[in-house]
Amino acid sequence: MEEVNTGRRYAEKLDEKDPLAEFRNRYIVPDDVVYLDGNSLGLISVDAEECLDRVVDEWKELGIKGWKDAEIPWIWYGERLGDMTAPLIGAEEDEVVVSNCTTVNIHTLIGTFYDPFKGSKKIIVDELDFPTDHYAIKAQMKLKGIDPEENLIVVESRDGRTIDEEDVVDRMGEDVAIVFLPSVLYRSGQLLDIEYITEEAHKRDILAGFDLAHSIGVCPHKLDEWEVDFAVWCNYKYLNSGPGAIAGLYVNEKHFDSMPALAGWWGHEKSTQFDMNLDFTPAEHSGAWQIGTIPILSSAPLEGSLRIIREAGVDRIRKKSVRLTSYLISLVDKLLKDEPYNFRVGTPRDAENRGGHVAIERDKEAYRINRAMINRSFITDFRPPNIIRVCPSPLYTRYVDVWRFIDNLKEVVQTEEYEKFEQESEEIVY
To answer: What keywords is this UniProt entry annotated with (predicted)?
Structure first.
């Protein structure tokens, strides 16, 4: 990216040259809002709404016959959406299925692949994980009679923002069964080197699993090429499939003979599923890790969203994401670093180590400044103790939106507008 000019016209010129600009028209962007929170909840697209409407109509017209007679038969919906997702993570179609929620998928995959009775009892995580990953892993350890206090290895951060991959590798002893890490750290936006971590884990006969919640749809992956063992993710961030949408999982085909820890009837082989045999016969692919009946209405929006993402191409999405976040970082450096602003970037500056969002830090008043920006209709989110997370989602965020955000952030600090908001409370701040 060329030397950044801090003027608005420079941002407008970038938008004029943006090869993905037309995709913004496929999303329903609220009027008079600059939406920069797609790393928490992506916006709805026209395509997603159309798919949801179609499924509702199928329910009206077909009733129970929709399980077999819908445009995409509902009985296969999880597998078909998995097929559409597979290219985004570099996997074969039968290795991916849309099912459950992210936490449930962590439970079932950790429960499946964690067998402390084979000798290795420890699992490696990191201290900057999203909490649900730790909750699920600790619960699975306890279910197997293993004390997490003794056997959960938590890799510490050197700087409070990032995790050094070498620190992860250093903890890979003979007593480790699994390393389970996020692809992108939810606070700082650091993108971990999945390929390297997996390679080092396999050298020591350790399984490698990842939570792709903050990378799928905005960062290309090559899970098969990297020989990742398993992965989970949500679909409501960069995959824009709606609040509480169905999640997804990946199981490398070399593990298809493993028995799912949380067996449920939707993971039964389809040809005999309705024989109602009391013995569980798992599907011979990732579909075996489905548990309960797929929620069709909360799955349909993903179909429309995946159509757009595949049309745009994840490589082009990643290219624009890097340009947007680089532009944002440059503006912070040029305009907001010194007094009275005192902002700094807590996200890795090397694009290869950065996901799709930027953590903007300020030692004092970050919470109230974020509240003031939301009041101005700039939708970002706050993460304690001092982070304003800003996500320029490539398919609907313009460069001029980023410029406007920075310009308004300057004004909020200059005028001390944030002082009219109360100090941090228990309310959710997006």
So the answer is: Hydrolase, Pyridine nucleotide biosynthesis, Pyridoxal phosphate
